[in-house]
Structures are given as structure tokens and as C-alpha cells.
Amino acid sequence: MKKFVVTAVLALCLMGVGLMGTGLSGPETAYGANSDTYKQLNLFGDVFERIRSQYVKEVKDEELIEAAINGMLASLDPHSSYLNPKNFEDMQVQTRGEYGGLGLEVTQENGVVRVVSPIDDTPAARAGIQAGDYITRLDGEQVIGLTLTEAVEKMRGEVGSDITLTIVRKGEKKPLEVTVTRDIIKIKSVRYHIEDEVGYIRITSFTEKTGEGLKEALEAIHQELGDRLQGVVLDLRNNPGGLLDQAIAVTDAFLDRGEIVSTRTRNDRSIQRYNAHKGDMLKGKSLVVLINGGSASASEIVAGALQDHQRAVVVGTQSFGKGSVQTIIPLGANGAMRLTTAYYFTPSGNSIQGEGIHPDVEVEQLRLDEAEEINTSRRSERSLRGSLENPNNGHEELLEAETRTEEDKQKEEDKIKLTSAKDDYQLNYAINLIRGMSIAKFNQ
């Protein structure tokens, strides 16, 4: 009887997930399950009961069920996962504004944690952790065997406490031991400064206030330079993404009309299009967008739309290639599931999934004071285990907030010089390109 109840509950849960995740009507989903499906559920029930009764030590039923759900979602693609109540609450806290942690955007690859990018002005960035680093141990404990959620949970903790990361870095013969002190992570996603007569705006993530922050930055740049403004460099390098509506707002700020992005569910059953409103805040001035292999998801929406509309010149290196939409589906008191529900497409109808945005002008990053060997290999969405195929090759509603927000600070705090053209080859190239475009427009 106990086995029957477990199996029946699981069957109902699975059908419920299908209803929420696909938007199909109840009867079509329920009757779509054939006898083989129920045989497999019976198999699950057998295994579940064997573990409960014969495993060498007692395991809580909740832990077994959570592990099974985690395995089911993780087998789909790298971005679908289960959020237990605590992790779901943590995610909501992050979206609201702050948490105790290191300030890393990470993914899981080959069983270890790979750094997508350190977040500006956080303990991780100050400790010198770099994009592409592999974290293999946390306080001496191996990462292999942990889920990404478990590894992230261990990196978070009480503000002021230390954690030692064992890092494998390309070019280093031995693993590095880096001790990082946790701090309150507060991220202002938009910062700017002025390079002579060129505005520089860096967006580190797409959070709840990104669109508002961009507007304030553009207004301040216009106010300071007036008619002397030659153009703007929009830096999306190492920006891992975030909220879809904010990516749309950022793109809309530079366009007068046209489609920004579309999302399409399975078999194109539902296509949602998002269009620009009249009003280019840059008033037709030159725009260059900087991207690299750490630019993903919402960053690629912005770069792809501005490129397709020929509103901006995209400079840098090929972006990450995350072209899928994750929907957060609450599961009541049981947390939530993060499920990949759609692909997004640029205005020209291209999917970025696994392909990324190819820059108009490819410029590798070099230090200006020395020539360094260029590493042509790149980590991308396609290199992740279980990544989805590009839908164009075969024939985000909501993008998860991957980063944190914070309340606005005084305007003077916006003028933090994140980088300078004198020590950033790609930025130097972009600024010179803006100047050249400005001269060309003036001579027309």
C-alpha cells in the first residue's frame, strides 16, 4: 500500500508539472501518459522502497524525493533545476537586493564549478578570481559529487566569515588556494564614466533597476557633454544575463521602432514578440556594444537586437550562446522549479542557442603595454554537458534573475571608473571607433 501511494503521488506530481510547464490543457496531458510511463513509475517506486528498507543507513524520504527531482531536471539541460524551499527563498532574497556571499556567477562543468564571471566590486573580484577558473574544493571539501545548488550554498554564509577556494586556472601548473571573506553582496548593475567626449556605460547584470539605471546614466552623460557627445560604448562583457524585461528596456532605449526579441515555446505553439517604442535616448549618436565569451542570455538579446537593426557596431569576441528561457514555477510549500520553457530569437529570426552573437568587428583582449599570446579556445553554452541544440539547426516570459539588485546610491557613486582605455585594448578600440564614426557623420 505504501509503495502504491508513493507511485500514485509521483504520477500526479509529474502530471501537475506537465500542466504548469507546457501550458497544455489537463485532459491532453493526462491522457498522453501511456502504460509504459506507469511501468516506469512503478520501477521508481520499487527503487525508492529498496533504498528506504535496505540502504546501509537511514535516509529521509524528503531527501530521496528531492534528489530524484533534481536528477530529473538536471538531465534535461544545464539550466533546469529544482529549488527547495530554502534555495527558492535565497533566490528571492538575491532578487530583492542582498545576501552574504562571494560575488560569483558560476555554472557546473565536468562535476566542478566553473566561474562565468566575478561580479564587480565584490570579495571574489577583489581576491583576483577570474572568469574561466575552475573551483575544485571548498574549504578542502571536493566539489565533485555536489550539485551546483549545494556548491553555491556552501559558498554563501555569514558576513565576515572566510572560505578557502581551491582553483585550477589555465596556465598555472598547480592549483591555487584563495581565501575569500564573505560580505554583503550589493550590486549596482549600471555604472558609467566619460572618456574625453565619449560616454562609457557598463552593465554588469540585468536586474530590477537596470533600465532605470541606464536612463540615469544617459541623462547624466548628456548633461555633462551636451552637443560635444560623440557617442557611447555599452560594455556587456562578462554580463551573464538576468531579467528579460530589463534587457528589453535597455534595447528600447536605443531604438525608435522594430522587434527587439521573440520567444518561442515547444513546436512554436506560443510565440511572444517584444517591440521597441519610439524614442532613441542617444538621439542617433554612434553606439558600440562590447561583448565577449562571458556575455550571455539577456546580454545577447541586447547585442543581437542592436546588431540586427544596425543601430550599433558589436565589437569583441563571440558571446556565450545561451538562447533559452527559464521560467520559475512555484511549487507551493515545496519550493520551485526552474524549467527551460522556450528559446529566444533575435529580430532577424536567428536563435543564439549554442551559437552566440558574432561581433561585427572581432577584437581579442590584449594589454596595450605588451603583446600576449591569444587563447583561441572558448567556453560556451555549447560546451556545457546536456546543452540544448540550436532550434534553427534542426529544421525569456521570465528570465531568472541570476544576479542581485540594490537601492540607488548617490549619483556621484555612479562615476566609478571601472576600466580605462589606456589599459583595456577592446575599450580603446571601441572608443576610437566611436570617434571615427562621429567624424564620418559630421562630414556627411
Q: What does this 3D model show about the protein?
A:
Strands 3, 4, 5, 6, 7 and 8 form a six-stranded antiparallel beta sheet that branches. The model is unreliable at 1-31, 368-376 and 394-418 (pLDDT under 50). The termini are far apart. A hairpin with a 2-residue loop joins strand 3 and strand 4. The protein has three domains: 2-85, no CATH class; 99-185, Pdz3 Domain (Roll), CATH 2.30.42.10; 190-442, 2-enoyl-CoA Hydratase, Chain A, domain 1. It is an alpha+beta fold and 444 residues long. 31% of the residues lie in helices and 22% in strands. The relative contact order is 0.13.
Helix percentage range: 25-40%
Q: Give me the strand/helix succession.
A: HHHHEHEEEHEEHEEEEEHEHEEEHEEEEH
Secondary-structure arrangement, i.e. CATH architecture of the largest domain: Alpha-Beta Complex
Output the radius of gyration: 23 Å
Structural class: alpha+beta
User: If helices are DSSP runs of H or I spanning 4 or more residues, what is the number of helices?
Assistant: 11
Sequence stretches where pLDDT stays below 50 over 5 or more residues: 1-31, 368-376, 394-418
Number of strands: 19
Query: In angstroms, what separates the terminal alpha carbons?
Result: 83 Å
What would you give as the CATH superfamily of the largest domain? 2-enoyl-CoA Hydratase, Chain A, domain 1
The fold-level CATH name of the largest domain is: 2-enoyl-CoA Hydratase, Chain A, domain 1
Largest sheet, in brief, is:
6 strands, antiparallel
CATH class of the largest domain: Alpha Beta
Task: Please state the average pLDDT score.
Answer: 82
Count of domains: 3
Shape: globular
Proportion of beta-strand residues: 15-25%
